[in-house]
Amino acid sequence: MRAAIYIRVSTFTQVDEGESLAAQESRCLAEITRHGWKHFKTYRDEGISAYDRTAHRTGFSEMLHAARAKRFEVLIVSSLSRFARRVVETLQT
Q1: Angle CA 1–9–46, to nearest 5
Q2: Contact (Cβ atoms closer than 8 angstroms) between residue 47 and residue 10
Q3: Which of 23, 28, 55, 83 could form a disulfide with 76 if both were Cys (CB 3.0 to 4.6 A apart)?
Q4: What are 54-68's pLDDT values in tens digits?
C-alpha cells in the first residue's frame, strides 16, 4: 500500500517545541514502517496556518490532487491539527 505524508508548521514556536517538519515526518515514517507500507511522497507546508483555506497551502493542494488521481491509498499526518483546524473542513476534505 502506498502511503503519503502531509506535514505542516505554522509558526517558528512549533519548530522550537518539537513540532518541526523533520520531527513530524519522522513520526509519520515510523508509522508507515510499522504497517509495512511503501512511502510514496511527503507533502509539506512551512509557515502556513491551517486557518488559511486549502488553496493557499501549496503542499496541501498538491496532496489533494495526487489523492484524487489515486497515486496513494493512505495519508499519514502526525496530528489532525496539521491537516486542518476546523472539524467541518476535515470532514469535507
Answers
A1: 90
A2: yes
A3: 28
A4: 557 889 999 999 999
- 61's grid cell: 493542494
- For residue range 32-90, list pLDDT tens digits in order: 999 999 999 999 998 765 555 555 788 999 999 999 999 999 999 988 777 766 666 66
Distance of CA 7 to the CA centre of its chain: 4
Q: Can you tell me the distance from the alpha carbon of 93 to that of 87, in angstroms, rounded to the nearest whole number?
A: 10
- How many whole angstroms separate alpha carbon 62 and alpha carbon 32? 20
Q: CA geometry: angle at 81 spanning 76 and 82, to 5°?
A: 50
Burial of 84 (0-12, 13-18, 19+ CB in 10 A): buried
Q: Which residues contact residue 27 at a Cβ distance below 8 angstroms, ignoring those fewer than 6 apart?
A: 78
